[in-house]
Each structure stands twice: as structure tokens, then as C-alpha cells.
Write a structure and sequence with these properties.
10 strands; Lipocalin; alpha+beta
Length: 202
């Protein structure tokens, strides 16, 4: 009787193990989220001659990432910003920013970010996103502070599952070789970048 009972337990475990593994894999599966271009804002600010902080935007960008909201695991992601889409509400200044002193968009039309990791807080609302930023042909690591604002099905329009995020970081542009105006304090070296976007689950 004891042997029969033990054999039944072993058989039950053998049958259950694949099911449990499959359930675990399903739970850990990371979805692809595509950033909605209609709700993707990238802003920057940097000091101008000490008088004020100049504000601006990048108007064209796209990106996607693999993320599981349940486990808070990120396996990768990328964002591409069209450098020539820079906008500071002044044509002459924008042309200067597109030129060789700054972004040199003719030779470097794309600013790229590749995500390498994400660590969230205990509540899963905030976290630190690590990645590599490529600009002017140089690649250096950066960290962004991220806030997950909301995850829900959109209340109108496409009505798809949507993830809303805010993120910001501050970089030293001279690290990428963009050092115009730094030595004489005409243009600040530190540039604060801010990202606001909605991403759609694929």
C-alpha cells in the first residue's frame, strides 16, 4: 500500500511539474510595448549665459521595449531620436543646434538609447533605468529616474492596454564631444532631459 501511494505521488508530481513550469513561464513572459508617437514628448533644458535655462524639444522619436509589469523585469528596449527635429522656438538658434557646434545632424542624424537594465522600488512605481546613449558617434552609459504613472486599458480611441511613464536624467554634453560654449560659460555643459510617453502593449 505504501509503495502504491508513493508511486501515485511521484506520478502526480511528474504530471504537475510541466504544468507548473509552463505557468511560471507564462507569468514571466515579457510583453513588447511600443511607444505611441502621438504621446511621446522629449524636452531638454540647459543654462544660457547664466541668465536663464533655455528650453527645447525633440519633435520626432520612436521606440519600444520588452517589460513585464508583474515581475517588473525589463529585458531590453531602444529609442531613436531624430536629431534634426530639435526645436527651441527660434529658427537661427535651431539651425545652430543642428550644425557642427552641437548635434552635427548631417553626419549624426540619429540619437540612440539602448536600455540595459531596470531596478524598481518596493512599490513598483519608481525605478532606475540604465542604458547606453549614442550621440555624435560616442556611446556612454546613462541612468534615468523613471515613474510608472498608470497601466490600464485606454478609456477611448484604440482602447488598448497602455503604460504611461515619466523619466528624466541630466547629462554632461561635453562627454560626447559637444563642448561648444562650455569653457566661457556661454552654454551650460549640463543638459537635463525629460521624457513623457505612453506605450501600447503589442
Amino acid at each position: 500500500m505504501q509503495k502504491l501511494y508513493s508511486g501515485s505521488v511521484r506520478l502526480s508530481l511528474a504530471l504537475l511539474t510541466p504544468l507548473l513550469l509552463a505557468a511560471g513561464l507564462a507569468k514571466a513572459e515579457q510583453a513588447v510595448w511600443e511607444i505611441d508617437a502621438e504621446h511621446f514628448s522629449i524636452a531638454f533644458e540647459t543654462e544660457h549665459v547664466g541668465f536663464q535655462k533655455q528650453l527645447g524639444l525633440f519633435l520626432e522619436a520612436s521606440g519600444s521595449f520588452r517589460y513585464d509589469p508583474d515581475s517588473r523585469e525589463l529585458s531590453g528596449g531602444s529609442v531613436e531620436v531624430q536629431a534634426g527635429s530639435i526645436f527651441s522656438n527660434h529658427d537661427a538658434r535651431d539651425n545652430h543646434l543642428r550644425g557642427r557646434d552641437f548635434l552635427n545632424v548631417r553626419r549624426n542624424p540619429v540619437i540612440a538609447f539602448e536600455a540595459t537594465g531596470f531596478v524598481s522600488d518596493d512599490e513598483g512605481v519608481r525605478g532606475t533605468l540604465s542604458g547606453d546613449l549614442t550621440m555624435l558617434g560616442e556611446t556612454h552609459p546613462v541612468s534615468l529616474q523613471v515613474t510608472i504613472n498608470k497601466q490600464a486599458r485606454y478609456p477611448f480611441g484604440h482602447k488598448r492596454e497602455t503604460l504611461g511613464l515619466s523619466a528624466h536624467t541630466t547629462i554632461s554634453r561635453s562627454l560626447w564631444g559637444m563642448d561648444y560654449g562650455v569653457a566661457d560659460n556661454l552654454v551650460g555643459d549640463e543638459v537635463t532631459l525629460r521624457f513623457e510617453f505612453e506605450a501600447l502593449r503589442q
